[in-house]
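Rotation project, supervised by the postdoc (A.L.). Task for the rotation student: set up a whole-complex structure prediction and record inputs and outputs verbatim in this book. Inputs entered:
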Amino acid sequence: MHADVLILGAGPAGCAVATPLARAGRDVLIVDALAQPAAAIGESLLPFGARVIELMGVSMEGFQRKDGAVFTRGADSVRFAFAESARPTWGHAWQVPRDDFDARLRGAALAAGAQLVVAKASHYEPDARTLHTDQGPIRCEQFVDAAGRRKFLARQLGEVELHPRLRNAALHTRFRGVRALQPEQPGDITICAWSGGWFWLIPFADGRTSVGLVLTPGHGLKDDRWAGALAACPEAAARLDGAEQLGELGGVSDFTAYSRRFSGPGWALAGDAAMFLDPVFSSGVLGALESGWTLGEVLRDGGDLQAWEQRLRAAMVPMEQSVLAFYDGTFLDVACAPVGLQKPRFRKAIISLLAGDLFAPGNEASRRMAGKFGWLADLAALAPR
Ligand SMILES: Cc1cc2nc3c(=O)[nH]c(=O)nc-3n(C[C@H](O)[C@H](O)[C@H](O)COP(=O)(O)OP(=O)(O)OC[C@H]3O[C@@H](n4cnc5c(N)ncnc54)[C@H](O)[C@@H]3O)c2cc1C
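Outputs recorded:
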């Protein structure tokens, strides 16, 4: 088998790479191990993800609308509404079961003219430009690894770099009957922080809720980490009180990692295969869609892959600064500060970050805010309560 452009992975990144190339008439083959997309983590989208979703022509009908994000820490809680961001171009997002969302993305890539082959890849030979799969070898002119956080090609090339300060682990499952408590509005994501990590609660349109627990290396829990964390985080426990757990706990760890290079001769990386930051601000699918779509454009137009990589890395810097501020406590010090201290422009800038206003030109609000959590937290600490 042979393809002009061979894309490994029919997730958000792979489908986003494929669409502009296939629309331009290129011969695009996507390889995925799954004949149908499966349930997966990565279910809470950000408003600015809608840029690529719209370009792909994907309908979001039926998904739970997400208008804001709620953070709790002990007695403190705060809600941010996306419509109040500095540039509310996209004022809301969605909570999406990934089997359904990924199926819609696949549909868009195939409608654009890409082909799909169901096969499990084992390794890629860069010199021979050949992907080896359980259905036989596939040769190509250009290979794109969009196969997710296991970093298929970067791992094979020894290029994976774990983040030195973000070595977290996560447990996750789904529940039915989760309570929405103040200040949540229907569809909001809730992040309940405690000293050893945080819980996410992501409500879907069908009444189920994705619930996850992210543990930092110093969490201090021993045997039953889920129950121990709930005991340490009454805000999450109150929301799960009486709810029915729908499945076993899944687990992942060491997910925050970048590849040292995003491209080489005849190959490039998109989505988690290139970069993934901690999930606390739900930026994964946004990064996958943006890196994928822009890579597709660069490959289509014969553009500069180095410049593309630099733009992506630069866009993620404010998100990384904000993620680090979440884990050192300064993000929540600022977010939960007395209302009088929350100057409207700072609040708007925080919401711009939370909305994922990272990639489009003119995103100064997010960029300026991200470096300020430390000194704003110092100011907040001095304010009378
Ligand atoms: C704990 C946790 C929570 C998260 N929560 C969120 C969230 O709330 N919101 C958010 O936006 N992001 C979240 N993410 C991140 C999100 O899951 C990813 O960023 C996103 O799915 C990346 O998309 P992708 O297309 O790069 O890869 P994936 O979605 O992983 O798609 C990869 C595709 O490649 C296929 N594949 C993989 N290996 C092979 C192989 N060898 N052969 C053939 N096919 C293969 C897979 O079947 C899959 O279809 C979270 C991540 C973690 C770790």
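Student's summary: Residues 333 and 381 are 8 Å apart (CA to CA).
Supervisor addendum: The pocket of flavin-adenine dinucleotide is lined by residues 8-14, 31-34, 41-45, 120-121, 146-148, 152, 170, 212, 252, 255, 271-273, 276, 279, 282, 284-286, 288 (CB under 6 Å).
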